[in-house]
Amino acid sequence: MDKLHNWEKWIGTDESGKGDYFGPLVVVGVYVDTDSSEKIKEHGIVDGKRIYINQIQDMAEWLLDHYDKNISVIKYMTSEYNSIYKKLVKQKKNLNNMLAEMHIKVITELSTRTDIKNAIIDKFSYHDLISPKLPGNNYNLKLVTGGERDIAVAAASVIARYTFRKELTALSDKYKFDLPPGANDVINAGKLFVETHGIEELKNVAKLHFRTTEQILNQ
């Protein structure tokens, strides 16, 4: 892991599900200190996007077992996601605003628990949406390209991906239908889902603002 700062205690955040048509949007924050960050490194935690899916569960469950009080998870299941997104569009806002609010929530929740104001986030396009809204304006916020090189962000990435896949599996089980991750090769699955469960149920499994929805419904 690269050293991206000199903090002894800090919060890292990451997200999962942003680019997936089916399933929720998840943002996770993880608080670490010098001791816990070393133990997490020793356990082999790296960026969740670089870990095989069969390793994600073991790593995420280890983190949740050992550091539950240091972790904050926010997830918007698709029905809630679609409702929030619809309201944002009316306010001339978009997905970046939603994600920014979710990152703010996990940072402030962990900061309230730990009184730590240092936070690192993988760099994305909504920095200006986060900094002004953090309460008190006394946070040290770093946005770094490839933020998963930081151990707290890497741990957050693992838990975010685990949570996303767990909820996607639960949706698949609920509808007895294999909902694939990602945004490629989902059109046929979407069409079959609509044929099986009806258009009304699509909002409960998919992010409707994706262009994929139009492709699914245009038979």
How does the SSE layout of this entry go?
Layout: E1 9-16, E2 25-33, H1 34-42, H2 53-67, E3 71-76, H3 78-90, H4 95-114, E4 118-122, H5 127-130, E5 140-144, H6 151-175, H7 187-197, H8 211-217
Total of DSSP H or I helical runs spanning 4+ residues? 8
Give a count of the beta strands, DSSP E runs of length 2 or more: 5
- Write out the strand line-up for the largest beta sheet, numbering strands in chain order: 3-2-1-4-5
- What coarse outline follows from CA principal-axis ratios? globular
- What is the level-2 CATH architecture name? 2-Layer Sandwich
- Count of folded domains: 1
Which bin fits the share of residues in helices? 40-55%
Structural class: alpha/beta
In whole angstroms, the N-to-C terminal distance is 48 Å
Outline the biggest β-sheet.
5 strands, mixed
Mean pLDDT: 91
Listing every helix as H and every strand as E from the N terminus to the C terminus, the arrangement reads EEHHEHHEHEHHH
The radius of gyration is 18 Å
Unreliable spans: none
CATH superfamily: Ribonuclease H-like superfamily/Ribonuclease H
Strand-residue proportion: 15-25%
Write down the CATH class: Alpha Beta
What is the CATH T-level topology? Nucleotidyltransferase, domain 5
